[in-house]
Amino acid sequence: MQEINMKAASLKEVKTELSHKSPQELMELCLRLSRFKKENKELLTYLLFEYSDEEGYIKSIKSAMDLEFEAINTDSYFYMRKSIRKILRLIKKFIRYSQNKETEVELLLYFCKRLKDFEPSITKSKALVNLYNRNIDFIKKKTGMLHEDLQYDYQLEIEELE
């Protein structure tokens, strides 16, 4: 059986087509998108309810991160690695919704702090140490793109983690 691939329209084509839609039609399209996939609904929720309160958004993600870290199965490093990678995937998804560099740095710094203080120590797992170091390097790179005052503040936090 042959697989059918529908060619997606370019962003320019979508933008042009959306400009011809009425507010009612746009609302119906958004609602239909939100029913189609969980991530679409989450993004729409962020844009409608969280976008104006980035501070609250960061706080809620940190709380969720705390709960996830507390739920990690520490019986073996295998389970710890799986859980920690899952937490990182979730964080990256929430960062994609925000598209704010400060939010990205803030959340990844918090993740690294939690990882550094985690018991049992991640130092006994080469994979977790590498994951930690990759994220520190990534944070350094992203911090370089921020305002100088923020760079200084975040640099101090990065030095604490190293």
Query: Spans with pLDDT under 50 lasting ≥5 residues?
Result: none
Shape: globular
Q: What string, H for helix and E for strand, traces the elements in order?
A: HHHHHHHH
Strand fraction equals: under 5%
Radius of gyration: 20 Å
Summing up helix and strand content along with how strands pair, one would put the structural category as mainly alpha
> What is the number of helices?
8
Give the % helix.
Answer: over 70%
Instruction: Report the mean per-residue pLDDT as an integer.
Output: 92
Termini Cα gap = 54 Å
- Please summarize the sheet with the most strands: none
Beta strand count: 0
Number of domain modules: 2
Descriptive tags:
162 residues; mainly alpha; 0% strand; globular
